[in-house]
Amino acid sequence: MTNPASEIRVESDDIITTITIDRDHKRNSLTADVCRDIADAIEEAEKSQERRVVLLRGEGRAFCAGADLGGQHHEGSFHEQLRRMLRTIESSRLIVIADIQGPAVGAGMQLAMAADLRIVGERAWFMIPPVKLGIAVDAWTVRRVRVLVGGARARTILLAAERMDQDEAVRCGFASYLGGSDKADEVAQRIATYAPLSLAYHKAVLNDDETHSPLGAEQQALYDQVWASEDAAEAAAARAEKREPRFHGK
């Protein structure tokens, strides 16, 4: 049963758990609590031997518009819970399907990437804009983009902060299927009939890739420098003041 105070809805039948981010007033942006609740719901679903699939959705206009941090990107509990949510999705024995019927930006694209399959609707588009915010995403995110969309497209997403629309998602293979939520329901129901041990094995091997390799010393130093930079603070101030940031590389 869903916690009345939670901003997600959880509905389960014998084989499928559907998790809906219910924050349309915030375009389904993520807080630490929402990330925690999604991870908890997936762990709860795993307790059922009959459960096979988790379906992730966003209510209303967006799939997930990113992090709801009020411009404060140093909120430690958010990053902790975001990492836990992504890792829970990736390591779950259940097949996690993202039903993406609107924008998936920043942490929203991370959520889409953690899923095993993505159903992409005509209103969907994707972006990861850390270079516009003076911050850095973790190595898992950089590498997962490269694994899922290819190296050349990953560079336009991460270095040029370009949007990837539905057509581009299809061309690079990021979109598993095109269609609306009815298509997501159909795929979930079909996969839920497959052999659960076989699904879990193939998912585990597919996720045994470069994405969890540790950063090298130089890469880690650059990552730490980005988060401690004046540019990161400037971007947060500019967002609060509703103006463009002025970056100086320090």
Considering the chains and any ligands shown, give keywords for the structure.
6-stranded mixed beta sheet, ClpP/crotonase-like_dom_sf, 11 helices, 250 residues, single chain, alpha/beta, fatty acid metabolism, 2-enoyl-CoA Hydratase, Chain A, domain 1, enoyl-CoA hydratase activity, 46% helix, 3-stranded mixed beta sheet
Main structural class? alpha/beta
CATH T-level fold name of the domain at 8-180 = 2-enoyl-CoA Hydratase, Chain A, domain 1
H and E order? EEHEHEEHEEHHHEHEHHHH
Radius of gyration: 18 Å
Helical segment tally? Answer: 11
The rough form would be described as: globular
Q: Which regions are unreliable across 5 or more consecutive residues at pLDDT < 50?
A: none
- β-strand percent reads 5-15%
Question: How many beta-strand segments?
Answer: 9
Name the CATH architecture of the domain at 8-180. Answer: Alpha-Beta Complex
Specify the CATH class of the domain at 8-180: Alpha Beta
Keywords: Fatty acid metabolism, Lipid metabolism, Lyase
Family: Belongs to the enoyl-CoA hydratase/isomerase family.
Catalytic activity: a 4-saturated-(3S)-3-hydroxyacyl-CoA = a (3E)-enoyl-CoA + H2O; a (3S)-3-hydroxyacyl-CoA = a (2E)-enoyl-CoA + H2O
GO molecular function: enoyl-CoA hydratase activity
